[in-house]
Amino acid sequence: MASYITRKLSTFLDLSSLIPISILRASPGTIPNALFQSSPSHPTEGILESLLLSNGRTLTYRTYGPQTGTPLFYLHGSPSSSLEAAALVPHLTNRNIRIIAPNRPGFGQSSQHPNRKMTDHAQDVLAIADSLGIQKFRVIGLSGGGPYSLACAHSIPSERLAGVGVIAGSAPWKLNPTKGMDWHGWMRFHLVRYFSWTFNNGYLRRSFDDKLKSWSVEEQREFWRKDVDNTAIDLGEKDKLVAQDKEAVEEIVDCTMEAFENGCEGPMQDSVMLVADWDFQLGDIGFEGVRLYVGTEDRSTPVHGAREMQKAIKGSKLVEFEGDGHFSILVNRGGEILDNLVKND
What we know:
Blueprint: H1 2-9, E1 26-30, E2 47-53, E3 58-64, E4 70-75, E5 97-102, H2 118-131, E6 137-142, H3 146-155, E7 161-167, H4 183-194, H5 196-200, H6 202-214, H7 217-232, H8 237-244, H9 246-259, H10 265-275, E8 291-295, H11 303-312, E9 317-321, H12 328-342
């Protein structure tokens, strides 16, 4: 019975692509890219690096693009990883942009951070920026990374931010984020919201981890391929096209494999946090000029949520892409989004 429940739990997680300053002094370093001997699909995996914080946690992140480029922090979806930022690599040609993509706590090789809050990740972003000597930067988050991007807009001093963007981002629960959502997503969000104890249950987490570890790499990849298929059933036409593209599916699987490399605690914690009450209010965001990007046919994070967030965030702007969905927006509109957010730097 437990193995059945833990297997089903994965379908309730959000597939998103196609993650005090004084105590955060840290030293950067490069670590082995341990997972992706099994990853044939990404044209580049970026440069995987680590940051050891003075409080003992390790953050991992990938960088893409020229080191002298305009710095842009990319916050991955959930469950996903820093590998997700590779989807923007084809759009970096002739754009002087450096992408820095952290793995959130418990994702990939980033340390777990029990009882963390969304605004805590803003301090992690600052720690990486400080370690790289970056004074001013932009932040953009996709899907489940969107709330963390907004947490940065709330908690990072405005003089450090040159821009903040959200792509197909999850809205807070009080704004009715499931309005217009596909049945699969609606059920997932409501189950996690009202049965969060299930996701916080240590036995079920261990059972899920043990199940994944008992499978070969290919068996794990096949499990996540089927999850993509299940997710895509109720999505729009452009999203279905992406889900039918074998290379795109393998990229999604790569991201999910890395998300669970350190076990399921990080992704499950993330899922609970997305539907719980956030630790900041949208109306309290002091940074002006937040940009929200959404496809009108997005059934995973519907346009309703983006429109409501635009009303709640002072000075924010909303860009709607007609006909695009949750998977297709980054593939089809990534270049336009980069140009809109980064402008003429």
